[in-house]
Specification:
The complex is a heterodimer of chains A (about 130) and B (about 375).
Chain A lengths: L1 E4 L2 E8 L6 H4 L22 E5 L8 H10 L6 E4 L4 H10 L3 E3 L2 H6 L5 E5 L4 E4 L1
Parallel strand pairs in A: 2-3, 3-4, 4-5
Antiparallel strand pairs in A: 1-5, 2-6, 6-7
Chain B lengths: L4 H7 L5 H16 L5 E3 L2 E4 L4 H15 L8 E4 L16 H16 L10 H4 L10 E2 L2 H10 L9 H10 L1 E3 L11 E5 L6 H14 L4 E4 L6 H14 L5 E3 L7 E5 L1 H11 L7 E4 L6 H10 L9 E5 L1 H10 L1 H7 L2 E5 L16 E4 L2 H11 L2 E4 L2 H8 L2
Helix pairs in contact in B: 2-7, 3-4, 6-9, 8-9, 8-10, 11-13
The chains are: A alpha/beta (about 130), B alpha/beta (about 375).
Chain lengths: ~130, ~375
Amino acid sequence: MKVLVSGKIDGIVLKSENPINFLGTVDKKTGIISDKNHDLYQKSMKDTVLVFPSGVGSSVGAYTIYSIKSNETAPLAMICKKADLTVATGCALANIPMITISDEEFNSIKNGMMISLDTESNQIHYQ
Amino acid sequence: MELTKDEESALKGEQGEILQTAYRILVATGEATDAEKLVPIEWAHLSGVNYNTIGDAGEELLSDISKNARVKVKTTLNPMGFDIDNVKNYGLDENFISKQLSIRNSYETMGVIPSFSCIPYEIFDIPKDGTQVAFAESNAAIHANSFDNLKTNKESAFSALASAIIGKSPYSSLRKEDSPNITIRMKVNNPNELTYGMLGFFAGKVGDTSVNISGIGEMDKRQTKAMCGGMGTSGTCAKFIFGKGESDCEKIDFDEKEMQNVHDELNTAEKGDIITLGSPQLGLDEISDLAGKLKGRSFQKRCMVFMPRTVKEQSTKIGYTAELERAGCEILADCCTCLSPLISKDSVDAVTTNSIKGAFYLKNSNGVDVNLKPLLQIVEDETR
């Protein structure tokens, strides 16, 4: 795994197979995805471990990540397959732990799993 | 990424919250772009200024961090949403104006030079060859790398601001020696600035980090700016290297057919209700040239001309401003066609411009149609 923003959290996985465009498809007050075509449509990312392939769209989307953190509707951590600058800088700004993992590891994570992440010791535990 | 002891300490928060956040942004950016370290920079140019693009979240964040954050290196700024001298003519609401002024105030408090310009390479002195800078404005990053012998990544608004506060930037992609795997062969004859804009747009689509480009002769400033603006609009690529490249480079031709494809993508109207000039903003050379072309002629419809404030002040002293206004131009400083809140689809169906960058954003952000023409043609068709 590669650590982009460090931290230590325990939480329940909310997993998406679709990339997320934070600008425009994530409500910056509620943290709910408003894109009807997204597999997380109407799901709230609040206090989850959000697992998704990568971010897409305008880098201004980083402000959305900062906003949901300020509004206490942000995920506890984000785990991606690919690092993109919008999610990386958004998580850095909002101090949300963020890592990237291999495709195999990504595939092994299931919705609803409990995850303990500690970037200091470079460890993820699944339950 | 390897950090020094001092950098580690700042990242842990031992030097305050602002530096911690700034380091967190640079480390996240560096890890995302495979940088192995941070390098000192001498100049940062920030995007994320126009309230139209950063909105309330941006305004609040800047207001918050400006209480403590100060920039450490020379830092300049992209255009904002309007020219305070004539904003009342454009029907912008009070909320927009006050939020935009708050953003301006936050940047000034942090020690940023209020240049409100997307052409820092034209209005500031260029540092010596090879100097590391951090430019977030795409056309400026491309110009700096391709024409000014500076080194910058195509920074995000956040990495450029963090770089300004820390005085360092991640050592990744374009800062290292790069050898593009693509060479674009320019095959269009008698190119004007619109052709170069389309070439840039095409190059941005096919290129990844940098591209070789061959078959190009002398270019004037208007043409180089158009090419950089076009490339910055369509992708992540941020450097032209002039030459044929290695023999194993993939060769791609930019010919009449490719040019027509770009034209068809961005040109959606036969004529415009208004004209805009400037995206990137016009420099003094272009203003002088425009004033010459407009001698004894007047626009038959509204023509908005965008430039940095320093250029407006010089133009006024020399007399160009009076000449342009006589010809019917609206002179706007501190703002730009690109992402302008001053052009609304409620009152305008289509805009005539010679800017590929402007066309892209007018179409996708303002939601208006675009009629593309080179400047010479615009003057011929739209003035009497």
